[in-house]
Amino acid sequence: MPVQKLTDAGVLTLHCPEGRSHSEVFDTLMRGLYVDVMANGRLAYRVRYRLHGKQRVFTLGDARLLTVEEARAAARTTLRRVLIGDDPRSEVLPEQGPTLAAFFLEQYLPYVKSYKRSWSTDETMLRQHLIPAFGERAMGSVIPPDVARLVETMRGRGYAAGTCNRALVLLRYGYTLALRWNIEGVEQNPAKELKGLKEDNRIERFLTPDQTQHLLVAVRKSQNPLLASIVAFLIYTGARKREVLDARWSDIDVSRKLWRIPKTKSGKVRHVPLSMGALQLLAALRAEHPPLDGLVFANPCTGRPFVSIFHSWDTARQRAGLPELRLHDLRHSFASFLVNAGRSLYEVQELLGHADIRTTSRYAHLSRERLFEAVEAVPLIKG
Questions:
Q1: Where in this chain does the record put each Tyr recombinase domain (predicted)?
Q2: Which residue, 103, 112, 206, 221, has most beta carbons within 10 Å?
Q3: Which of 65-69, 99-103, 365-369 has the lowest mean pLDDT?
Q4: What are phi and psi of 312, to 5 degrees?
């Protein structure tokens, strides 16, 4: 049982030992407080206590959102409740309604699964942000300042404005349904009046060939044995992160040099041509890592698709000197390589799977040198 003085910086460097589903690192300054480090990359603060002779655990929240001092304060409050015989895990008062976790997991998710293709995105947002922040709270006890603090905390932790806004939208819609369904204890929507953060969707980063090489060197040094292959495959194909992480060998047709993506953002099946580099990568990957459950990039700790690769990716991009680079920027870089090589926007549109050419037109400005070469085709006017 590892024990150490927890610090904000130290907590973010913790990782789950290979072959284990999770590990626990206890704090030296607060009895019972520990970080639960899971194989999927999630970090959660929990406090262990005994009540009526039985050992129990109470989850305090996401360790990427709470500071160590906040976790210690929450643990101290929890243990004080235990001292007077109150179980922190006990049911909330009926007049406050169900816990937020109970409502969203037992009522909201089954409902949206019936019609929403992207319900898994909601599930991820709940698991990573909303439930760690409010999961144990009664729905009726959450007020607008609580939601505002969550958004501020996420922003302070480096999450993009779009991610913060999606958390806000999900919470707002969940409470709208709770009010519509007359859920007991829910009398207001704490997210209704809060405005979303301003998003600048025009920010796009494109790797230069030199930056690409620096990045590939950095990812090869990662403790995640599959990160280098995942990043290289993203660059080779221009696919979305989730498409790559969920890729299956049964959808790879080596003879036809095609990768079939059954679930795309548009809801349509897409076929991605595979370059020689992508095919060589897949051949090496299959030789080095025996397929698990048919997955191309299975998490070796779980045998399932990676839920998140943020920690290993963040470490690698910092090492490469590219701290602002997002995984999605590899898709932009794929497009920029094509445009600068003289490929048409219609070809880029097809390869990226854009339904509208206007989405692809953002890359029209990339190759200035080619435009200068093009105007030289106009003959000199003798006058």
A1: 202-376
A2: 103
A3: 365-369
A4: -70, -35
Beta carbons of 142 and 178 less than 8 angstroms apart: no
Helix (H, G, I), strand (E, B) or coil at 380: coil
pLDDT digit string, tens, across residues 300-344: 888 899 988 999 999 999 999 999 899 999 998 888 888 888 888
pTM of the model as a whole:
0.51
3-83 and 209-371 agree in CATH topology:
no
22: left (phi over 0), alpha (psi -120 to 50) or beta: beta
The average pLDDT across 109-123 equals: 87
How many other C-beta atoms are found inside a 10 Å radius of the C-beta of residue 239?
A: 24
CA end-to-end distance (rounded Å), the chain: 87
The whole-number pLDDT of residue 372 equals 66
- SS3 call for 58: strand
Q: What are phi and psi of 86, to 5 degrees?
A: -95, 130
CATH assignment of 3-83, among 3.40.50.2300, 3.30.160.390, 3.50.50.60, 3.40.50.620? 3.30.160.390
CATH topology for the 209-371 domain: hpI Integrase; Chain A (1.10.443)
Q: What is the pLDDT of residues 201-210, one digit of tens each?
A: 555 678 888 9
| CA distances to 66, 94, 234, 330 from 238, in Å | 35, 51, 5, 7
Provide the residue ranges of all domains of the chain, joining segments of one domain with +: 3-83, 94-180, 209-371
DSSP code for 195: P
SS3 46: strand
Report the interhelical angle of 161-180 vs 144-156 (nearest 10°). Answer: 160
pLDDT at position 326 is 92
Alpha helices in the chain (DSSP H): 8-12, 68-83, 100-103, 109-113, 119-125, 131-134, 144-156, 161-180, 209-220, 227-237, 241-245, 276-288, 310-319, 329-340, 345-352, 357-360, 368-375
